[in-house]
Amino acid sequence: MFKNTKEALKYVVKIEYRNDGEGTGVLLPLTNTNYSYILTAKHTFGKDDNEKGDDYYKISISDIQKDKIELSNSKNIEFEVLNIIDFNDIDQKIDLLIIKIKNDSDTNKLTKLTIFEDEFTNCLAYGYPKIAQEAHTAYEPFKATYKYIGVKNKFEIRLSDITNIDDNLNTYSLIQGMSGGGVFVENHKKTKVYLAGILIKSSHNNNLVALNIKSLINNINESLKNKNLEKLIIDGAEWKDKYGFDMSDLDFEEEIKEIYEKEKNKNKFIKELNQSNDNKDKFIEVFNKKIKNSLKEEANK
């Protein structure tokens, strides 16, 4: 049983666009900035049926009218759109957008929603399907199980209770408008909610396809870094449960900078790194990650 249903709902956002587009987004609060992110499916903003379907990659963010985007949560709190961010610089075929929103007092109260980096089986699909739009409420979330499909950066979830909702509606009818919604998981102690994926389409036999944010996060964060924006945070529930802090809390950048400056003219590897036009920031990023991974492997033995 998924215990944190109400907690997950706090991050589910209803999206309306130009009176002819509706979808869902997932709020990722940022604590050290004056803005936060809403992740959603790019095809929500298509101008015709083709762009709302397989031609979503043709959508240009310059054509998206941010003043026509309306965002609200289950408490009818609205969010102010600051900017639209796509990831064409890393892969034009990723059906994903980030809506940058202005932080307010309600957003600042929310706990950070981090990206889940561990394996999972049970999950929750949450969103605003079209059949619930008039009621302005997120539909009852779908309990689901993970399904590996062997497709890069994607996975499927099988809805376990869809037949209990309405026998007269097919999967597509039930989930239309849920694109951009979240696939949520919780740690084994059921004390925290994480985001594992973003819903992008229905499949077959009560299955939904989701973007695997964990597998995309390095590219997403590289793109955000190039735009001078805050990165998404990935976090393992088991690590947090065992040791009381997230991997994201660990940071060895200052120590690595000292090593770099001390060894840059003596260490063969660092000298070769400099000659290959890689910079100090790259060195720090790579070794910071290596240290974290080594610590994690050692601790999990």
Architecture overview:
- This protein has 301 residues and is an alpha+beta fold.
- Helix content is 25%, strand content 26%.
- The chain contains eight helices and 14 strands.
- The protein has a six-stranded antiparallel beta sheet with strand order 4-1-2-3-6-5, with no helix packed on it. The protein has a six-stranded antiparallel barrel with strand order 8-9-10-13-12-11.
- Strand 11 and strand 12 form a beta hairpin.
- Helix 6 crosses helix 8.
- The chain is globular.
Show the helix and strand layout.
Blueprint: H1 5-9, E1 12-17, E2 21-28, E3 35-40, E4 69-72, E5 81-85, E6 97-102, H2 105-109, E7 115-116, E8 122-126, E9 142-147, E10 154-159, H3 171-175, E11 182-186, E12 193-202, E13 207-212, H4 213-226, E14 234-235, H5 237-243, H6 253-263, H7 268-275, H8 280-299
Parallel strand pairs: 7-14
Antiparallel strand pairs: 1-2, 1-4, 2-3, 3-6, 5-6, 8-9, 8-11, 9-10, 10-13, 11-12, 12-13
Helix pairs in contact: 6-8
